[in-house]
Design brief:
heterodimer; A: mainly alpha; 2 domains; 55% helix; B: mainly alpha; 14 helices; 0% strand; Stage II sporulation protein M (chain B)
């Protein structure tokens, strides 16, 4: 399968012989997710520590256990038990997977979250940010060591209506990417201005042997023909 | 086949598959009850391959791809060794791993215990040295904690159970935090682990030397000897795990640095799990045994010595046989 050179997509091949594209997430959404998690943790600690402080010594003991859990295990527990997403990642639509696309396990999650300590050195996530920005798949140091990847969880896009036109066959065969391009043109027409539609379609007026003004309609017809019965 | 015909023919199957996926993801049904899941998944993969090959619209291919990815996540998983066989890890794999990595363990042990003993001796011989390593405030705090007079007064009444609880929580957080730091810093080509090993060795050494020198030795040593067996060993092992990470970056051998780091990280993670276990035991002993005042000092020394032997025997002897108890 061909891949565009300027694409950040990460292909994994499954044992069934198909390629699945993953879309790694960059620095900004990950930083926002982390900030959200930090806020959640701060809030949870704040709320829980007030009643614990009233309990006296047991409260302090429980409080420090809790602090330990929250500071070292919050990410690990959420990532392993919640489909690879901490609450912050959930909000930003991200998830963590292994390099081969399988769900993250305890050991990988522990590695990437313990090494977060190094990513935070010398101040404010400096090493992590540098590593993330220079890596083709935006990995920070913890991700490199654990062999994990932060990707977007994709939501299926709503399907656009294809403009009405009489289905039409072409007297010559189309190549696969030409076919995809024509379908793409028909599907995306709703997002384009009329002038742009005209401009794009008129490129193909010559090979379709129609006047430029009718090219868009002709292309929609071809797209209809490709989708359904002629 | 035209796209719309293909779609209308298989749409119900895709929807059924998506429904199954949803149940699996939410944990409502166990993978065991879905005997036909792999079959359905492979059929979906076939449909996806066909759709791509025939150049169907990306509004058809993309949802299929997402379904396939979700199915892939459910079908293929890394078996987690941590939860699967804790027992064999404790009884054989962990000590075996420590012996296998004996070079790093040796270096980390020398750095940590070496700096500890040297500084303890130096501070014992030249008492004012302690103030150049530990802040005067911390020294005063430590003196307060181990003052034989004060502690006799303070501890005559038995310590309340709640206080043991408090200290347990504190020790878990504090010590495992230090171990994690010592490990993680190893990623900086091992230098971070070396730093934390020596640093912790210096602090502990300086305080123990100082307290012995001013005559608080009895209270101090009888307190620390018991849990020290687990705690100090664990910190040295955490450092060894960190050094292992660093060494994977310095000398990756025939692998790329990234690959070598990944392999080393997996191994050192196992070592770190053992370290956590040791530290939990240490925190338990520290909170409930080391702090008890009713036992005589010589009993504490005896138990402490036994514990040290136990840890040493555990790490050197367990899991030697080929078929370890599993």
């Amino acid at each position: 399968m061909q891949s565009a050179p300027l694409d950040t997509r990460y292909q994994i091949e499954t044992p069934e012989g198909i390629d699945l594209p993953l879309r790694p997430a960059g620095l900004l959404p990950r930083a926002l997710a982390f900030a959200f998690d930090l806020g959640v943790r701060g809030l949870a600690m704040g709320i829980l520590l007030v009643p614990l402080a009233l309990l006296g010594n047991i409260g302090i003991g429980l409080g420090s256990l809790l602090l330990f859990l929250v500071s070292w295990w919050y990410m690990v527990l959420f990532e392993v038990l919640n489909q690879g997403s901490s609450p912050g990642k959930q909000v930003m639509g991200l998830r963590v997977v292994q390099d081969d696309g399988t769900p993250i396990g305890w050991s990988a999650s522990l590695i990437r979250n313990l090494l977060r300590f190094v990513d935070m050195l010398p101040f404010g996530y400096f090493f992590g940010a540098v590593s993330c920005l220079q890596h083709p798949h935006f990995k920070r140091l913890g991700d490199l060591a654990a062999g994990t990847l932060v990707i977007y969880r994709q939501q299926p896009a709503a399907r656009p209506k294809i403009p009405q036109a009489a289905p039409l066959g072409l007297p010559f065969t189309l190549e696969l990417n030409e076919q995809r391009a024509i379908l793409g043109f028909a599907e995306r027409q709703g997002e384009l201005s009329a002038e742009r539609v005209h401009e794009l379609a008129s490129i193909l007026a010559m090979p379709l042997q129609v006047p430029a003004a009718r090219a868009a309609e002709q292309l929609n017809g071809v797209a209809r023909g490709l989708l359904g019965p002629t | 086949m035209k796209q719309s015909l293909f779609e209308s023919r298989h749409q119900p199957q895709w929807q059924a598959f998506a429904e199954q996926l949803k149940q699996l993801e939410q944990g409502k049904r166990k993978a065991g009850d879905m005997a036909d899941f792999p079959h359905q998944y492979r059929r979906l993969c076939q449909h996806l391959a066909l759709a791509q090959e025939r150049g169907y619209s990306s509004y058809l291919v993309d949802p299929l791809q997402q379904l396939a990815l979700r199915g892939h996540q459910q079908l293929y998983r890394h078996r987690s060794r941590l939860t699967a066989n804790i027992l064999s890890f404790v009884l054989a794999d962990f000590p075996r791993l420590v012996r296998e990595q004996w070079r790093f363990v040796l270096i980390a042990g020398l750095l940590f215990f070496g700096s500890l003993v040297v500084v303890a001796l130096l501070v014992y011989l030249f008492p004012e040295l302690v103030y150049s390593i530990v802040s005067p405030q911390q020294v005063a705090e430590m003196q307060g904690m181990y003052d034989p007079e004060a502690s006799r007064l303070g501890r005559l009444a038995d310590r309340a159970a709640s206080e043991d609880w408090m200290m347990f929580g504190y020790y878990v957080m504090h010590n495992i935090g230090i171990a994690f730091q010592t490990f993680a810093a190893g990623l900086l080509f091992g230098l971070g682990s070396v730093f934390f090993l020596i640093y912790n060795g210096l602090i502990i050494g300086a305080i123990s030397g100082h307290l012995t020198e001013i005559g608080y030795g009895q209270t101090f040593w009888s307190f620390v000897i018991g849990h020290g067996a687990f705690e100090l060993t664990a910190i040295a092992l955490a450092g060894a795990a960190g050094l292992q990470l660093g060494w994977a970056l310095i000398a990756p051998g025939r692998l790329t640095r990234a690959e070598s780091l990944r392999l080393a990280a997996r191994k050192s993670m196992q070592m770190l799990c053992g370290v956590m276990l040791l530290l939990l035991i240490a925190a338990f002993i520290e909170a409930y045994w080391s702090s008890s005042t009713t036992t005589a000092a010589w009993i504490k020394y005896l138990v402490g010595a036994v514990l040290w032997l136990l840890v040493a025997a555990y790490l050197t002897l367990t899991g030697r046989t080929r078929h370890a108890p599993e």
